[in-house]
Amino acid sequence: MMKKILNFCLAIAAFVATSGRSLAAEDLLSPLAITPDYNTLTASLMNRIPYFLGGFAFIAILYSGAIYVLALGDTNKMEMAKKNITWVIIGILAAASVFAVIEIIIKITNPIAPIP
To answer: How many other C-beta atoms are found inside a 10 Å radius of the C-beta of residue 62?
Structure first.
């Protein structure tokens, strides 16, 4: 049963991750193309990391919610699910604050260039 729930959560996460943004031909990097400079590579990675973190957090919350619902009154499992959800929310807040600090540092150190 848990395997079916996990597969369902993965399918939903994959749908959510792909439905928010379309994949255009210019987004794909050709292996024969010249390697982009450090700033372009860093900006590209920084723009993609929140999608992965958001998808992981979504799956973790769905999984913890399924554990909570399927606990059927078992207080140990219910407490474990509550703790998991709490730590996922703390992780989301920590990741968001890290990205905010990075954006602030980029704006302070390079105020003329627009952030991609």
So the answer is: 17
CA atoms within 13 A on the CB side of 3: 0
Q: Which two tokens stand for residue 1?
A: 């049963």
53-107 pLDDT, tens digit per residue, is 888 899 999 999 999 999 988 999 999 999 999 999 998 899 888 888 887 887 7
b/e sequence 63-100, b meaning 16+ C-beta within 10 Å: bbebbbeeeeeeeeeeeebeebbeebeeebeebeeeee
Q: Are 49 and 103 in contact (CB under 8 A)?
A: no
**Residue 64 C-beta-side C-alpha neighbours within 13 Å:** 17
Chain length of the chain: 116
The Cα 106–Cα 116 span in angstroms is 11
61, 19 in Cβ contact below 8 A?
no
Q: Are 66 and 5 in contact (CB under 8 A)?
A: yes
| Cβ pair 67, 94 in contact under 8 A | no
- 12 in Cβ contact with 60 (< 8 Å): no
